[in-house]
Design goal:
By secondary structure, the chain is mostly helical. It folds into 5 domains: 7-98, no CATH class; 315-472, Four Helix Bundle (Hemerythrin (Met), subunit A) (Up-down Bundle); 474-576, no CATH class; 605-812, Beta Polymerase, domain 2; 821-920, Up-down Bundle (Four Helix Bundle (Hemerythrin (Met), subunit A)). It is 61% helix and 5% strand. It is built from 42 helices and 10 strands. Helix 1 packs across helix 2 and helix 4 crosses helix 5. The protein is elongated.
C-alpha cells in the first residue's frame, strides 16, 4: 500500500526547481493521473525536469508515445532547449529519436547527397537543414540514453560534418554549373572535424584545394573554386527560416583570412616550405579528406603530411609551441578564469596540446603516432611508451569527461560555448545531464576542479618535458638510427667501434614494444650526450648492461623518458664511472636517487648509524645476513656519494667525510652483531669491552673510493676477568668481524687493515689498554707517533676508545717537544719509504702519492707541524690534513700562500685518485702516460 503524497512533493522528488510555477502549469494542463505519472517519471531522469514538464504539458499527445521513445524525448528536450524548439515546430523529428547509428561515414554522406540531388536554391537549403536536424536529434538521443559513448558521438558528428559539406558542395556546384566545369575542388577537414572528434556545435575548420579541369588555366580554375567554396560556406552558415547549421571556417589556410580561399597543391607546398609557422603544422596534424574530389585530397595529403612530421626540426619549434599555449591562456577573459573548459588551466587544450606536441616530436621516427584523433594519439603514445600507462589512462578519462561536459553545455542552446555557467540553475541542469543527481551544481564544480588540477599537473609534466627539446633538435637521420648510415654517423660522433655500438643499439631497441619504443626515444639523445663524454663506447655498453639488468622494470625507462634530468644524469654516470655502474648493476633500483640533488646529498652520521643499528637489531641472530645487509647499505651510500661526485655536487673534502661516516656507521653496527654472536657462544656475556680505532685516511675522515680501512683493535677486560680470559674473546671478535666483512657477497668487501698496530703484522692483532700503554712507553719509535696523529674513535666502546686516545696523546703531541734529531729521522724515513715503495719504473712526476708534490709531501708537512707544535696549540690537535694546514696558517706557522698551494695539491691528487677508481673501477696512484 503506497502513501498518497502531494503534487508539490512529487515535483521535488522529480527534481523540479520551480515547484510553484510547474505546479500551476500542470493544474492548467488538465492531464489525467496516468498522464501525470508518466510525465513525472520521464521528467525525473532529465537534466531539466522543469522544461520537460512544460514542453510535454503543451503537447499531451506525446505522452502516448512508446515508453522508450518518450524517455528519449524527455532526455533530449531536457538537455537542449534548441532541439526542443525543433521538435515543437517539426513533430516528425520525434521519429528520429529511434533512428539507429549509420553503419559508416560513406553511408551517411550518400544519404545527404541523395537528399539534395537535383535541388537548388531555397528548396535545396531546406532539405539539407532538415536532414541535418533529424540526424542531430538521432545522435543526441543515442548519446543521452547511453547507447553511444563519447567516441562514437564525436565520430558521428564528424561524419555528419562530412555529409553536410558534401551536400553543400553539390548544391553550390548545381547553382554555379559553369564554374563547376572549370575546377576540381577538395575540402580538407582540420581541427576537431579533421580529428573525427567534433562537437555538437562548432566552427568546422577546413581548407580548400583546387585543380583545373582539362583545358582550363589554373588561375581561372582557382577563381571559380573560390566562388564555389564561398557559396558552400554561406549555405552552411546562413540563418534561414529552417535554422542554421554551423559556420565553416577557412581561417587556418595560408595567410589566414587575407590569403587565397582556394589554392593549388603546389601553392600550398611553396607556402608551407617557406613561410609556415609552428601552429600551422600543428593544425595540419589533423588534416584529412572531408568532401569533394577525394583523389585530389589524397594527393594533397600525401605531399603535405610529411612536412608536418618534419616541422619539429625547425628552429625553436618546441619553444614556440609552448609559447603559443601560454598566449592562449593569457587571452582568456578575466570573467572566464577558472571556468574555461577549452582554453583554461586544466582544460581541453592542456590535453590536446600535450598529445600533439608529443606526436610532432616523436612521430618522425614512429609512424604509429601519426593520427589526428586526440584519443587515438594518446593511446598510441601510451602503447609506444612515450607516456606512462597510468598517465595516459588519467588523461583519457579526463578528456572524455571534459568533452562530454562540453557537449552538455553546447546542447543547451546549440551554441558554441566552453565556459561553465555562473548561474546556480544552469549549473544544476548541466550537473544532472552528467548524472550528478544529489547536489548537481556542487558536485559538478568539485569534479571540474579535481579534473582540472590533475590535467594541469600532467600537462606540465609532459608538455614541458625537457627531453622533448633534446629530441626535437636532433637531425632526422639521427632520430631514425637507420642502419644504412648509422655506422658512419656513430663514427662521426666519436664511437671507436661503431659496429659494436650499432649492435648494442639493436639489442636495446628490440624486446617488448613499450621498452623498445622508449629506448628509441631515448637513444638518439643519449648517444649525443655520450659523444661529449670521455668514452662513448663504454658509456653505451654500460647503459645496455643497466637496461638489461632492469629488464622491463617500468619505473626505469619511464623515469628516463619523463625526467630529462634523470636521463642526462644516467648518461653522465654511465659515461664517467665504471665503478658506479658496477654498483648500480648490483642494485639498479638505487638509480632513483638521481632524480634530485637532495637525494644525492650525503646522509649524516647519526642517520646512517640509526639505519645501520636497525639492520643489526633486525638480524641480530643471523650475523651473515646482518652484515650482508649492512654491506648493501654501504653500497647504496657509495652509489649516492659517487653519483654526487660524477655530477659535481660534492667537494673532495665532503667526499672524504661522507665515505668515512658511512664506514663508521657500518663498522659499529657490524661489530655489535659479531659481539652478540660471540657473547652467545660464550654463555651470554663478554669478558671484555672492545673498540676500533680508525687510523690513516680513515681516522682523518679523508677516505677515497678505493681506500682500505686502517684500524687498531683495542679491548679492556671487564671487572672480574683477567687478560687471559678476555684476549682470546677479543681476538675472536676481531677475526670474525674481518672475515664477515670480507666474505663473498654481491656487495663490495670491507677490508680492515691492522698493519699500523704495534710490531706491525708480527704483533698481536688485538691488545688491551695496558698492553698498548706498555708498548708505547717502552718500544714506540718515531713513525708510530706519526701514524697515531690520525687515530680517532671509529666503533665499539667509546669509553675504551677515549682511554686509548688519552694514552697516545702524549706520543703524537709530544709535550717535551720534537727534537731536531727526530725531525731528521722523519725526513730520512720519508725518503727511504718513497724510494722503497715507489713502483719500479714509475715516473715520480706522475705518482700521486709518493711523487714530487704528491699526497705524501703534503701529509708529511702537516704531520711534522703537528709533531713539533701540537702540544702547544690545541688547534693542531686534530686528525684532518686540511684542517691542520689551515690551523697552522692561522697560527703563523706556515704562510697562507704556501697553505693554499699545499691544500690545492692535496685536493687535486685526491680527486685524481678518486677519478681512477670511479672511471676504471680500480685503484691507481700513477697517472698513465697513455693519453687515452
Amino acid at each position: 500500500m503506497t502513501r498518497d503524497i502531494g503534487l508539490g512533493t512529487r515535483l521535488i522528488q522529480a527534481g523540479v526547481f520551480d515547484v510553484s510555477g510547474i505546479k500551476d502549469k500542470l493544474d492548467k494542463a488538465g492531464l489525467t493521473p496516468d498522464q501525470l505519472d508518466r510525465l513525472l517519471e520521464v521528467a525525473s531522469s532529465a537534466a531539466d525536469p522543469d522544461t520537460v514538464i512544460t514542453e510535454i504539458a503543451h503537447h499531451p499527445d506525446w505522452l502516448s508515445l512508446p515508453a522508450d521513445q518518450l524517455h528519449r524525448l524527455a532526455l533530449v528536450i531536457g538537455s537542449s532547449l534548441k532541439i526542443g524548439e525543433w521538435i515543437a515546430k517539426r513533430s516528425e523529428l520525434i521519429s528520429s529519436l529511434l533512428v539507429e547509428r549509420p553503419n559508416s561515414r560513406d553511408e551517411l554522406v550518400a544519404d545527404f547527397v541523395a537528399q539534395v540531388d537535383g535541388l537548388i536554391g531555397d528548396q535545396a537549403r531546406k532539405a539539407l537543414k532538415q536532414r541535418y536536424q533529424s540526424q542531430v536529434v538521432s545522435i543526441t538521443a543515442r548519446d543521452l540514453v547511453g547507447e553511444n559513448d563519447f567516441v562514437q558521438v564525436s565520430e558521428e558528428l564528424s561524419w555528419l560534418a562530412d555529409a553536410v559539406l558534401s551536400a553543400a558542395l553539390i548544391i553550390s556546384s548545381n547553382e554555379l554549373p559553369k564554374l563547376a566545369e572549370q575546377v576540381s575542388l577538395a575540402v580538407i577537414a582540420l581541427g576537431k572535424t579533421g580529428g573525427i572528434e567534433l562537437n555538437y556545435i562548432s566552427d568546422v575548420d577546413v581548407i580548400f584545394v583546387g585543380a583545373p579541369k582539362d583545358g582550363v588555366a589554373e588561375d581561372v580554375a582557382l577563381t571559380a573554386g573560390a566562388k564555389i567554396a564561398s557559396l558552400l560556406m554561406l549555405i552552411c552558415s546562413e540563418p534561414t527560416a529552417d535554422g542554421v547549421i554551423w559556420p565553416v571556417d577557412a581561417a587556418l589556410r595560408p595567410e589566414g583570412k587575407a590569403g587565397a580561399l582556394v589554392r593549388s597543391i603546389s601553392s600550398y607546398l611553396s607556402y608551407y616550405d617557406r613561410w609556415a609557422e609552428t601552429w600551422e603544422f600543428q593544425a595540419l596534424l589533423k588534416a584529412r579528406f572531408s568532401a569533394g574530389n577525394q583523389e585530389l585530397a589524397e594527393d594533397f595529403l600525401a605531399k603535405v603530411t610529411p612536412l608536418v612530421w618534419e616541422a619539429v626540426a625547425k628552429p625553436n619549434f618546441v619553444t614556440n609551441a609552448r609559447k603559443m599555449r601560454v598566449r592562449v591562456e593569457e587571452n582568456i577573459a578575466s570573467n572566464e578564469q577558472g571556468r574555461q573548459l577549452k582554453l583554461g588551466r586544466g582544460g581541453l587544450r592542456d590535453i590536446e596540446f600535450t598529445v600533439q606536441l608529443l606526436q610532432l616530436v616523436h612521430a618522425r621516427a614512429d609512424e604509429s603516432l601519426r593520427t589526428g584523433n586526440t584519443l587515438a594519439g594518446l593511446a598510441a603514445l601510451a602503447y609506444g611508451g612515450y607516456v606512462g600507462r597510468k598517465d595516459a589512462d588519467v588523461m583519457r578519462h579526463h578528456y572524455i569527461w571534459l568533452r562530454t561536459l562540453e557537449h552538455r553545455l553546447q546542447l543547451r542552446k546549440l551554441q558554441r560555448t566552453h565556459v561553465l555557467p555562473e548561474s546556480e540553475v544552469e549549473l544544476r541542469i548541466v550537473g544532472r545531464s552528467l548524472s550528478l543527481m544529489v547536489d548537481p551544481a556542487t558536485e559538478l564544480i568539485a569534479e571540474w576542479e579535481r579534473v582540472a588540477k590533475q590535467v594541469r599537473d600532467l600537462h606540465e609534466k609532459l608538455f614541458y618535458r625537457p627531453l622533448l627539446d633534446a629530441v626535437a633538435i636532433l637531425p632526422s637521420e639521427s632520430i631514425r638510427l637507420s642502419e644504412a648510415d648509422a655506422v658512419t654517423r656513430l663514427s662521426a660522433l666519436g664511437y671507436i667501434d661503431a659496429k659494436a655500438a650499432l649492435r648494442h643499439i639493436d639489442a636495446l631497441t628490440n624486446g617488448s614494444q613499450r621498452r623498445a619504443a622508449i629506448q628509441r626515444t631515448l637513444l638518439p639523445v643519449m648517444l649525443h650526450w655520450w659523444s661529449s663524454g670521455p668514452n662513448p663506447d663504454r658509456s653505451l655498453l654500460a647503459f645496455r648492461r643497466l637496461s638489461e639488468a632492469l629488464g622491463d622494470s617500468p619505473w626505469f625507462l619511464s623515469s628516463l623518458r619523463d625526467d630529462a634530468q634523470i636521463a642526462e644524469r644516467v648518461a653522465r654516470v654511465t659515461g664517467a664511472s665504471e665503478f658506479l655502474v658496477d654498483l648500480l648493476l648490483r642494485a639498479p633500483e638505487t638509480l632513483v636517487m638521481l632524480s634530485s640533488d637532495e637525494d644525492l646529498q650525503p646522509r649524516s652520521l647519526s642517520d646512517l648509524a640509526s639505519e645501520a643499528k636497525s639492520i643489526a637489531d633486525r638480524y641480530a641472530t643471523d650475523a651473515v645476513r646482518a652484515i650482508g645487509s649492512l654491506r648493501s647499505l654501504r653500497r647504496r651510500e657509495l652509489v649516492r656519494i659517487a653519483s654526487a661526485v660524477v655530477l659535481d655536487l660534492l667537494t673532495i673534502d665532503e667526499v672524504g667525510i661522507a665515505i668515512s661516516n658511512t664506514n663508521i656507521a657500518i663498522l659499529d653496527a657490524a661489530l655489535s652483531v659479531v659481539e652478540q654472536g660471540v657473547a652467545k657462544e660464550n654463555g651470554g656475556d663478554l669478558p671484555t669491552k672492545f673498540a676500533i680505532i680508525a687510523m690513516g685516511r680513515f681516522g682523518g675522515a679523508e677516505l677515497g673510493f678505493g681506500s682500505d680501512l686502517d684500524v687498531l683493535f683495542v679491548h679492556q677486560p671487564k671487572p672480574g676477568y683477567d687478560q687471559t680470559q678476555a684476549t682470546p674473546v677479543a681476538l675472536k671478535i676481531a677475526a670474525e668481524l674481518r672475515s664477515l666483512l670480507m666474505a663473498p657477497h654481491p656487495d663490495p668487501a670491507i677490508e680492515l687493515d691492522a698493519d699500523l698496530r704495534p710490531e706491525g703484522k708480527k704483533g698481536p692483532l688485538v691488545r688491551t689498554l695496558d698492553s698498548y700503554q706498555a708498548y708505547y712507553q717502552r718500544w714506540s719509535i718515531t713513525w708510530e707517533s706519526q701514524a697515531l696523529l690520525r687515530a680517532s674513535f671509529a666503533a665499539g666502546d667509546s669509553e675504551v676508545a677515549a682511554e686509548f686516545l688519552k694514552i697516545i696523546n702524549p706520543l703524537r703531541w709530544p709535550t717535551a717537544g720534537f727534537s731536531d734529531e727526530q725531525v731528521r729521522e722523519v725526513r730520512l724515513l720519508k725518503a727511504r719509504m718513497e724510494a722503497e715503495r715507489l713502483p719500479k719504473g714509475a715516473d715520480p712526476a706522475l705518482h700521486l702519492k709518493l711523487g714530487k708534490g704528491g699526497l705524501s709531501d703534503v701529509e708529511w708537512v702537516a704531520q711534522l707541524i703537528q709533531l713539533r707544535h701540537a702540544s702547544k696549540f690545541n688547534e693542531l690537535q686534530q686528525t684532518s690534513t686540511i684542517g691542520t694546514l689551515q690551523a697552522a696558517a692561522k697560527l703563523g706557522l706556515i704562510s697562507v700562500s704556501d697553505t693554499e698551494t699545499l691544500i690545492e695539491a692535496w685536493q687535486f691528487s685526491s680527486q685524481i685518485r678518486n677519478a681512477f677508481i670511479l672511471s676504471l673501477g680500480k685503484s691507481s696512484d700513477s697517472i698513465p702516460a697513455d693519453q687515452q
